[in-house]
């Protein structure tokens, strides 16, 4: 965040800031940006190479999406700590191993959210610890099922597509 930014809105998980920049012609332009603390996305792979995914009701888009588990980094947490916490919260699985595969921006035209993609292996099933507002169900999918869903255009979540393409590349 630059010192010249004005906070327009502060929410629990992000804030909206406004700043000015100079275009190529020397004119001053106002821009807004969503400032986000960052997030993780998990690629939980079972020993038989199936992937733990979630059906997640997303009220913001009015759809139930098939996604990889993910979540916002809380203050004081490392991305690794967030990944382990979110995996249990959303799926109930615990991971013995975490490997960072990629870092990427979710929507850099309007938001500075950096996402950290982790491969989670050595999974042990348990009970999820979902937030009271989360409407989530686990889905366990094979590589062939994932390829079919992607080919038919049935996965609409960008972070999930990034994670699944990384999975398919590794397979």
Helix/strand layout:
Elements: E1 6-10, E2 15-22, E3 28-35, E4 39-44, E5 51-58, E6 63-67, E7 70-72, H1 79-91, E8 94-105, E9 114-124, E10 136-141, H2 143-151, H3 158-170
Give a description of the structure.
The mean pLDDT is 95. The protein is α+β, with helices and mostly antiparallel strands. The longest helix is centred in the middle third of the chain and has 13 residues, at 79-91. The radius of gyration is 18 Å and the shape is globular. The protein has a 4-stranded mixed sheet, sandwiched between helices. A 3-stranded antiparallel sheet has the order 1-2-3, with no helix packed on it. 20% of the residues lie in helices and 42% in strands. It is built from 3 helices and 10 strands, in the order βββββββαβββαα. The chain has helices spanning 79-91, 143-151, 158-170; strands at residues 6-10, 15-22, 28-35, 39-44, 51-58, 63-67, 70-72, 94-105, 114-124, 136-141.
């Amino acid at each position: 965040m630059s010192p010249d930014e004005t906070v327009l809105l502060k929410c629990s998980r992000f804030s909206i800031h406004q700043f000015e920049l100079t275009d190529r012609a020397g004119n001053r332009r106002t821009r807004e940006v969503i400032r986000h603390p960052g997030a993780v996305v998990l690629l939980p792979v079972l020993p038989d190479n199936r992937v733990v995914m979630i059906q997640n009701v997303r009220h913001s888009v009015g759809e139930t999406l098939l996604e990889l588990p993910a979540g916002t980094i809380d203050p004081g947490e490392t991305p690794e700590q967030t990944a382990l916490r979110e995996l249990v919260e959303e799926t109930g699985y615990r991971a013995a191993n975490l490997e960072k595969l990629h870092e990427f921006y979710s929507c850099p035209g309007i938001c500075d959210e950096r996402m950290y993609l982790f491969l989670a292996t050595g999974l042990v099933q348990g009970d999820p610890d979902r937030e009271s507002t989360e409407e989530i169900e686990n889905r366990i999918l094979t590589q062939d099922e994932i390829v079919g869903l992607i080919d038919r255009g049935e996965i609409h979540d960008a972070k999930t597509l990034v994670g699944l393409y990384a999975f398919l590349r590794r397979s």
